[in-house]
Amino acid sequence: MILKQKFQKKCKWLLIAVLSAFMIIFIGALTPTKLFYNSSSPCNVNIYVINGGVHSDIILPVKTQKHDWNDFIPIEEIGADTNQQYKYLSFGWGEHDFYINTPSVADIKIHTVIKALFYPNNTSVMHVRGFKNLPDKKYVDIKCVRISYNNYLRLAGFIQRTFQLDNTGRVIRIANGYNAYGGFYGATGSYSILINCNNWTAEALRIANVNTPVWSGLSAPIMWHLRNNCT
Taking Cα atoms as reference points, which of 144, 149, 156, 147 lies closest to residue 223? Predict the structure, then answer.
C-alpha cells in the first residue's frame, strides 16, 4: 500500500512537471520578444519566411541596391541545374543527417530525430534553394516582411556568418538539395534540442529587427508573430 502511494505521488509530480513545461512553452510561443514593437521605420526590402512544417526558411532577393548574393555564393552552382537565373534564394540551417535525409514529414525516422536532438556536437548544414519566382501562397505558408536596408544588411551578415568557409574564403558545397534548384553547404554551430532550425530563423529575424516569439522551437509560433507589411 505504501509503495502504491509513493508511486502515485511520483506520477502526480511528474504530471505537474510535464504540464508546467508545456504551459511555459505555450506562453513563450505567444509572447513576443518585443512587447512594444514598432515597424514604422523606413523599409526598403521585402524578405519572406516560409513554413515547411518541419523546417522554416528565410527567402531573400538575390540582388538589392546594397547587396548581391553573387558576391558571396556562386549562384550557378547552388543546384544541379546550372542554367537557372534565380531572383530569390532561401536559406535554412539544420542538423546534417536530419536535414539532408528528411525532405518531408513522411521521411522522418526516429533514430535520426533522436540523434539530431540529443547527440552532442552535431554537424550542421545550410540548405540553399534558388527561385525564379516566389512560392505560391496557395500551396505554401509564406509571409512577407518589409525591412530597412540596414536591417537587411545585418540579416545578410548573420546568414553569411553561418556558412563554413574554406581556406580561400569560399562557401563549401557538400551535397545536392531536395531538387535540382538547391544544395547543402557546410555550416557553423551545433544543432540540439535547444538550438534547432527554427531557433536559427528566429535569431536571424531578430537581428533584422523583426518581432519573434520568446520560444521559437517550432515554425508555427514564428509565422504567427510575423505581420505582412509588404505593399
Answer: 144
Beta strands (DSSP E) in 30-74 are: 45-51, 56-61
Mean pLDDT of the chain: 81
Give the separation between CA 96 and CA 94, rounded to whole angstroms: 6
Write the CB contacts of 203 (distance below 8 Å, at least 6 apart in sequence). Answer: 158
Beta-bridge partner residues of 124? 95
Which regions of the chain does DSSP assign to beta strands (E)? 45-51, 56-61, 88-95, 124-131, 141-147, 173-176, 182-186
Cα–Cα distances (Å) from 228 to 17, 23, 54, 142, 223, in that order, read 37, 28, 22, 10, 10
> If you ran DSSP here, which 8-state letter would residue 184 be given?
E
What is the C-alpha separation between 39 and 37, in angstroms, rounded? 7
> pLDDT of 167-176, one tens digit each?
999 999 999 9
For residues 57 and 127, what is the distance between their CA atoms, to the nearest angstrom? 9
Domain limits, the chain: 1-30, 41-225
- Taking the model in full, what pTM does it have? 0.85
Beta bridge partners of 156: none
Edge-to-edge, what's the strand order for the sheet holding 56-61? Answer: 141-147, 45-51, 56-61, 88-95, 124-131, 182-186, 173-176
